Amino acid sequence: MSKVSLIPYTIQSVVKETKVVPPGIELIEAPRIWEQGYYGDGVVIAVLDTGCDSDHFELKDRILDGYNFTTDDNGDPAIFEDYNGHGTHVCGTIAATQNDAGVIGVAPKANLLILKVLGGQGFGDTKWVTEGVRFAMNWRGPNGERVRVISMSLGGKVKDQSLHQAIQKAIKEEIIVICAAGNEGDGRDETDEFAYPGAFPEVVQVGSVNLQGEISKFSNTNCHIDLVAPGEEILSTYLNNEFAVLSGTSMAAPHVSGAVALIIEQSEKEFERRLTEAEIWAQLIKRTISLNFSRRFQGNGIVKLSTGLTEPSENKKVSTTI
């Protein structure tokens, strides 16, 4: 059985309270989309991580359902609590509720399906992740809701075939899969670093930039990087109703997952129909701006949500090097 783990990340500070729109969310221009009336309302995002603090006041109203695939809590599938903090932080960046306290997520009215595939120590079997992807694909909500986005800030060195096949099947079911690139980067674009599932060509692989729009030194580089998002000094929800500032590509990926929820809501209202996964991908990439780094660093560039609002396209990516 191959192993996966949290992509290493840095905890920079923990704070008991705050009241701010996190700067990473400002950087990708989410507030400009909120002004148009789009908050990700009704879009379901499956978060495969260490679970979530389901009592956090910023998140409890966003969680639709959850499932535990790990051995934590004696393997009780109904208990998907986070004993690490990573999953809670990711969830907050995606969808922390809009209120007059704490932080706000990129898509503050999106709904979360919490799939706990990593234990409290941040490790898990690839089988748990594979089962989580399959669960997300087959899940139906109380009103017939379906998962539209899978978000994974985890990785391993092994190209697990079962996980790859599960992801491919989910994409055929029109679910877009967002993955962190990994933090083994050496700051050089001529060397490749691969972490899976991020490096599978079918997923949206997200690298990291700092809040000044510069490539993070730790961010993996390879020819399958699709785009970048803020991944340094990211303020979000944490355990015990607190907040924390964390850094890593783990923090970049949920910015994109939330952005996709906004794009789905906006685009499907404009085009008056459900978009395919390929069309969602195209709409996402149209909302990127090049930072003038190598494609191996930045892919198509940084997410800028108010950019490039044009017709949907069925043209699916083959490579990000062209």
The biggest sheet amounts to: 7 strands, parallel
> Rounded to an integer, what's the Rg over CA atoms?
17 Å
CATH class membership: Alpha Beta
User: What is the CATH superfamily classification?
Assistant: Peptidase S8/S53 domain
What can you tell me about this protein's structure?
This protein has a seven-stranded parallel beta sheet with strand order 4-5-3-7-9-10-11, sandwiched between helices. It has a three-stranded antiparallel beta sheet with strand order 6-1-8. It has a three-stranded antiparallel beta sheet with strand order 2-13-12. Helix 4 packs parallel to helix 5. The chain is 25% helix and 21% strand. The N and C termini lie far apart (36 Å). The C terminus is likely disordered. The chain has eight helices and 15 strands. The chain has a single domain, classed as Rossmann fold (3-Layer(aba) Sandwich). The chain has 322 residues and is α/β, with parallel strands linked by helices.
